[in-house]
Amino acid sequence: MVKRRALFAIAVAVALGGVALPAEARDQIRVVGSSTVFPFMTAVAESFGRVAGAKTPVVESTGTGGGFRLFCAGVGEAHPDVTGASRAITASEKTSCKNNGVTDVVEVKIGFDGIVLANSRQAPMMAVSIPQLWLALAREVPNAAGQLVPNPHRMWSDIDRSLPNKRIEVMGPPPTSGTRDAFVELVMTPGCAANPAMRVVQQANAARYMAACATLREDGAWIDAGENDILIVRRLQANRDAFGVFGYSFLAQNLDQVQGSIVGGVAPTFASIATGAYPVSRPLYFYVKKQHANGIVPGIEVFVREWTEERTWGPDGYLADRGLIPLPDADRNAERTSARALRTIGM
Which residues of 273-283 are buried (b: 16+ CB within 10 A; e: fewer)? Predict the structure, then answer.
């Protein structure tokens, strides 16, 4: 009888050979997302591994947009548990999550970062305004008659004689990056709005205006340099006339090699970003898949707790040493309470 049952079980297994059985649960947290948040996330993951005595989470830099695509692709051990972001999740990303069963998402605002225009320390420091940056990097700009034309500016001095007589060459993040999104929002859009000729374009054709404000050049003046900021630093070392766009936190870690330009009369510093004086700053986030905290992957609640300890993200925490600008005390306390309760956002 026992033998017959065993043979029957084998026959059933063969017949159902295409049916996947549940795999063992993952015992290691998986994190994806923003290259700007990556160094902070890595530091927290390493501390979590030491403090919790658990496996150190696997952290991958995919860019904000790429991180949300992976995060929102589904629930289960094949999908990431956490994603870092240098902007808030969008409505379309929420819809993607919901359509794939990712319905319980926790948002945690972790602090602030500035976006810098950096160059080699071996070159002079740049001082530039936001309207000048738009004129340098927009795909289309108005000519003397107020008509939109392909950007004719080849040298910085073509825009203003006070700027360097050097070719415009700026390396920055690709369209999947939250830093790219924030750069468009904080530099390109207001720089465009400040141009008197563009107000006429806006009145005549709102869609054309919006496209001209937000679209970066594709003629070599702006170069998509990928998500790896260290490669931009190396290229700036090799080309002293070039500039790179990345987060202040990365600048703070590489001040021996690169310097941040003065934008709108303000240099990018910890203090100027914390007070809001530096005009190109934005909040940073991470998102947690609460459905994975219910037994699929162990340690997620402890990981969130490690992130929200004062010794981690406070004014004297180890992330401040890496360039994270802390939230004000009241905001930080509110975020801590919400994060540790795993309160979800509306999807």
Answer: bbeeebbbbbb
| Runs of H (alpha helix) within 143-226 | 178-183, 189-193, 196-204, 206-214
> Which two three-digit tokens encode residue 80?
């990431």
174, 226 Cβ separation under 8 angstroms: yes
pLDDT tens per residue, range 165-179 = 999 999 999 988 888
The letter for the amino acid at 102 is: V
How many CA atoms, within 13 angstroms, populate the side-chain half-sphere of residue 131?
A: 9
Q: Which helix (H) or strand (E) holds 127?
A: strand 127-128
The C-alpha atoms of residue 19 and residue 160 are separated, in whole angstroms, by 67
* 83 phi/psi in degrees, rounded to 5: -135, 135
Name 1's Cβ contacts closer than 8 Å, sequence gap at least 6: none
**DSSP code string of 264-323:** TTB---HHHHHTT-SSSEEEEEEEEEGGGGTTTSTTHHHHHHHHTSHHHHSTTSTTGGGT
| 136: three-class secondary structure by DSSP | helix
Rounded (10°) CA dihedral 148, 130, 224, 248 = -170
pLDDT in tens, 23-53: 346 789 999 999 999 999 999 999 999 998 8
Closest Cα to residue 154, out of 211, 220, 215, 214? 220
